Amino acid sequence: ASGEVAISSGPNGLLTGSARVLIAGLTRSSTLLSSRPLDLALVADLSETLLQTRAVLRDDGGARGRVQARIGNLPRGGTLAERLYAGDLAAGLRWFGPADVLWRLAAVELIDLDGDLVIAANATGTLAEPLVRGSLSGDGLRLRSALTGTDITGLAARGVFSGSRLNLTSLAGNAPGGGRLSGSGFLDFSG
After folding, report:
1. C-alpha to C-alpha distance for 184 and 171, rounded to whole angstroms
2. For residue range 112-154, what is the model confidence (pLDDT) as tens digits?
3. Sign of the alpha-carbon dihedral angle for 19, 23, 29, 34
4. Which phi and psi angles does 82 have, rounded to 5°?
5. Computed over its alpha carbons, how large is the radius of gyration of the chain?
6. Is residue 42 scored above 90 in pLDDT?
7. DSSP 8-state assignment for residue 61
8. Which of 56, 154, 59, 138 is nearest to 99 (CA)?
9. Distance of CA 96 to the CA centre of its chain
């Protein structure tokens, strides 16, 4: 990692600062899997009332994702974390690339997902109670688990983010021995 992080106390005693950071080769390893290296370039500015941040995610195939976030109307009291969780959120995530990079960084260990994935999501509300809108799609995905013996290939997934949920509107793939999986459902990310 390289870069610069500067934090100070503002005129009202609240933390302010800025960050310009490059993390090269970011990975996450577990007992079962390791993620592919990902480079993260991050720029952030914090005032007493506002946090603004932008990040670009790259792998050896080039830019794969972008994240930008703005948390405004930060309260004048509390810890920095409390203030950030209570402020007004406006954020966006765009990803076009390997699903396994995000999946493994998210620390889901029981099952693994790989193949190309496209995500476009925007969040409003607060960090404590985000309202997410957007879409997810992937074709030719593979879902597998060494622990359960699951191996679903040719997986196609479509979904929409709505509030705290990811509604999987369609999910279909091939199971070993000529079986076929299809369905729909949801994942709820709320507390």
Report:
1. 6
2. 889 999 999 999 999 988 899 999 999 999 999 888 889 999 9
3. positive
4. -60, -40
5. 19
6. yes
7. T
8. 138
9. 12
